[in-house]
Amino acid sequence: MTADDPITGLLDLYCRELKVPGLRAGYAAIARDATSQGQSYPAFLAACLASEIASRREHRLTTRLAQARFPVAKAIETFDFAAMPQLSPTLIRRLAEGTFIRERENVILLGNPGTGKTHLATGIGGGCIQAGYRVRFIAAVTLAQELLAAQQEYRLPRYLKSWQPIDLVILDELGYLGLGPGGPLLFQFCAERYERGSILITTNLDFARWVEVFTDATLTSALLDRLTHHAHIVLFQGDSFRFKESKQHSQEVKQPPDAHP
Ligand code: ADP
Ligand code: MG
Q: Does 119 contact ligand 1 (Cβ within 6 A)?
């Protein structure tokens, strides 16, 4: 078949009209295979539809990964679980399947800086996207600032509404900075999501110290009550991975292989 073959022209036209780019890109090869393998018409049609489905799935995945705005894409596969022996790889992999989202549960990754919380939050988020969910990653301070700006510009309800289609909000680094007047707004954000959508929070602060971020004690305990009601709380204990790596590296440099201790 050539490009000016009337059938090819028609197929192109129909595929555009029906908005089936995967089928348009794939049908020629599928037709060749069908002919060489002597496939039935229904088998050929099934292969055509499968090609469109695969193309849509891939397109959706790419779009949703971009929409998630992960700072860097880190996978669970590149996480060294041996460095964090108290962490359950099974639990992390299960979270990455996204079933907690279906149950409207939350996840809190709590521990010292550098222990891999953001790495695994991103990995879990990526897994949830693969499982078909909409995910959005945002630093807690950024969200607080955006909420505050929306309030000042009288568009808070609209801004809050824009988050409704997101199945999982990853709120990164709660606690490094106080949130000032953004604190109560972040509370409102979390309260609105309660039992409607999931939140994953990474934080270096024990719950007892969350009041330093939100300043108001009543509000903080109300927030913790909601967040932890249906929550997987994962503790990251130990030293910073970066610190451990650089310490190991400097020891290697200081002690050449033939050095005697
Ligand atoms: P946190 O969010 O807890 O402060 P990060 O996830 O930002 O820590 O981790 C800091 C850096 O160390 C990142 O580059 C991360 O990929 C890496 N890292 C931390 N823990 C591990 C680990 N167990 N295996 C592999 N890389 C790790
Ligand atoms: Mg982090």
A: yes
